[in-house]
Write a structure and sequence with these properties.
By secondary structure, this protein is α/β, with parallel strands linked by helices. The chain has helices at about 45-60, 80-85, 105-115, 130-140, 145-155, 175-185, 205, 210-220, 285-290, 295-305, 330; strands at about 15-20, 65-70, 95-100, 120-125, 160-165, 190-195, 225, 235-240, 245-250, 265, 270-275, 280-285. The protein has a single domain, classed as Alpha-Beta Barrel (TIM Barrel). It contains 11 helices and 12 strands. The longest helix is centred in the N-terminal third of the chain and has 13 residues, at about 45-60. The structure holds S-adenosylmethionine and iron/sulfur cluster (SF4).
Length: about 325
């Protein structure tokens, strides 16, 4: 097994997230503007190019790979890529884990295939259990397909973690219900603070809800026991004693989670971002399409990781409500 590449701060980069498409069948209010211009298809890496880049990262010590988007399951033939990557699980210079973040709308079709490809757990984004609120938060989605998708994932034997973006005045009255529902279903839950990424039509400062406040409120009803459990991601977990399930908190705004960062992000056009909250990038598509052999590709990735910054500096700009980072989350993936 190759020793992992280290960044300038000695952090081993073992986790790659790939956004396989910037397109999505929903328009979540915190993520996208209502009118989005998507990338022309020719700019996208082919599935073969994505696989080649993933293999290069594996040679350099990546052991965990998450596919995201946009909505990864709307990319045509994405299951072919998933199967090819799944075949690398448990191999030397391969993966310990392959996973996915999805809005669940297509999961009923794909759940069994994901399991067969070697996935063990997936994250499904669900901000509310209320059908009308779901439609409001996604601008036009219907909750039915997502709930059916989640049920299909459970039936296929995939462990499900529900990701919920906490929004002030929108779904903050529902966290108790979500904890109870996840408890019944046997799912972990992860609450996420909104991050100021991309123009989204609404005022971000109005949406932002600090999870420190949420946590204090949850303690009125639930017994939260801190744990050391980590999944390789940025969440800090507690166990909800009453349900026995875990609840995670991702708090980029109130708590700087950068010190243990082990990941980089690749977009569907082959741009590598070394940090979710910074603009520095490396154009790996140019390297790939310039005819680079494996050694040259590896060198380009090493050079990019050598520039990984210490951390993000997201701020909620109260006067201008401007995003800290211009690109949308759907480009880099969550
Ligand atoms: N479409 C898939 C989904 O919704 O799960 C994968 C991509 S989505 C960009 C990944 C995660 O990012 C989702 O859990 C979503 O809720 C979260 N997200 C999107 N925009 C965000 C923002 N501005 N702040 C915090 N989380 C955000
Ligand atoms: Fe689509 Fe996911 Fe963004 Fe919602 S959060 S608009 S489902 S990419």
């Amino acid at each position: 097994m190759s020793p992992p590449v280290l960044d300038p701060f000695g952090r081993a980069i073992t986790y790659l997230r790939i956004s396989v498409t910037d397109r999505c069948d929903l328009r979540c209010v915190y993520c996208m503007a209502e009118e989005m211009t998507f990338l022309p298809k020719r700019d996208l890496l082919s599935l073969e190019e994505l696989e080649r880049l993933a293999a290069a990262f594996m040679r350099l010590g990546t052991r965990k790979l998450r596919l995201t988007g946009g909505e990864p399951l709307v990319r045509r033939d994405v299951i072919r890529l998933i199967e090819r990557l799944g075949a690398r699980i448990g191999t030397p210079d391969g993966l310990d884990e392959l996973t996915l973040t999805t809005n669940g709308t297509q999961l009923a079709r794909f759940a069994a295939g994901l399991k067969a490809a070697g996935m063990r757990r997936i994250n499904v984004s669900l901000d509310t259990l209320d059908p009308a609120r779901f439609t409001h938060m996604t601008r036009w989605g219907k909750i039915g397909p997502t709930l059916e998708g989640i049920a299909a994932a459970k039936a296929a034997g995939l462990a499900v973690k529900i990701n919920t973006v906490a929004m002030k005045g929108v779904n903050e009255d529902e966290f108790d219900a979500l904890i109870a529902w996840c408890g019944q279903e046997g799912f972990d839950l992860c609450l996420i603070e909104t991050m100021p990424m991309g123009e989204i039509s609404e005022d971000r400062t109005a949406q932002y809800l600090p999870l420190s406040l949420v946590r204090a409120r949850l303690r009125r009803r639930w017994t939260l026991e801190d744990t050391d459990y980590r999944t390789g991601g940025p969440a800090r977990y507690a166990t909800v004693r009453e349900t026995g399930r875990r609840i995670g908190f991702i708090t980029p705004m109130t708590h700087n989670f950068c010190e243990s960062c082990n990941r980089v992000r690749l977009t569907c056009t082959g741009t590598l971002y070394m940090c979710l909250g910074q603009d520095d990038q490396a154009d790996l598509r140019a390297v790939l399409r310039g005819g680079a052999d494996d050694a040259a590709l590896d060198a380009a990735i090493r050079a990019a990781i050598a520039r990984k910054p210490k951390g993000h500096d997201f701020v909620i700009d109260r006067r201008h409500a401007a995003p800290s980072v211009g690109r949308h989350m759907s480009l880099t993936g969550g």
